[in-house]
Write a structure and sequence with these properties.
Number of strands: 9
Strand content: over 45%
Main location: membrane
Shape: elongated
Helix content: under 10%
Low-confidence stretches: none
Protein name: TonB-dependent receptor
Organism: Paraglaciecola aquimarina
InterPro entries: Beta-barrel_TonB_sf
Largest sheet: 5 strands, antiparallel
Subcellular location: Cell outer membrane
Structural class: mainly beta
Number of helices: 0
Strand order of the largest sheet: 1-2-5-6-9
Length: 144
């Protein structure tokens, strides 16, 4: 996708006096990234299904994207790094009325990482790293 846009002005100046209205409305480095939009995204899903069993393997990928034009502390732009998540689900029809479900999300314990840009040359440093944790879910469904 084309993930670019017209950059915001260097700063907001409502009264046209050449002075920024506030520090919160100053945008650095003239980035033309479309806020929140990745250039590349993809989903790959493998499915097996018969009368009793359904298995799904799912991989979702998203390339890096501009998360914020200005960090609330430094005022610098923040980029979310590219990431991919691998999930799986299994459904088994025990009887015509009873179904067992199992889901595992983030099988590989993928981390979400962000970086902040510190200069016009594009130099970046890690800002944050979050682990979403692997999540397991089990359930039973019964049709009356």
């Amino acid at each position: 996708m084309d993930a670019s846009a017209t950059p915001p002005p260097q700063f907001l100046d409502a009264n046209d006096d050449g002075i920024p209205d506030s520090a919160e409305t100053t945008f650095r480095f003239g980035l033309d990234n479309l806020l929140g939009q990745s250039e590349h995204t993809g989903n790959l899903i493998g499915i097996y299904q018969d009368d009793k069993l359904e298995v799904r393997l799912i991989y979702n990928y998203r390339s890096e994207y501009l998360n914020s034009y200005r960090d609330f502390v430094t005022g610098n732009p923040v980029f979310q790094k590219d990431t991919g998540f691998f999930d799986a689900s299994i459904r088994y029809n025990v009887t015509d009325n009873l179904t067992a479900n199992f889901l595992i999300a983030n099988i590989t314990d993928e981390k979400n990482k962000s970086e902040t840009q510190i200069d016009a040359a594009g130099t970046r440093y890690q800002r944050s790293s979050f682990l979403n944790d692997r999540r397991l879910q089990f359930g039973l469904s019964y049709k009356f």
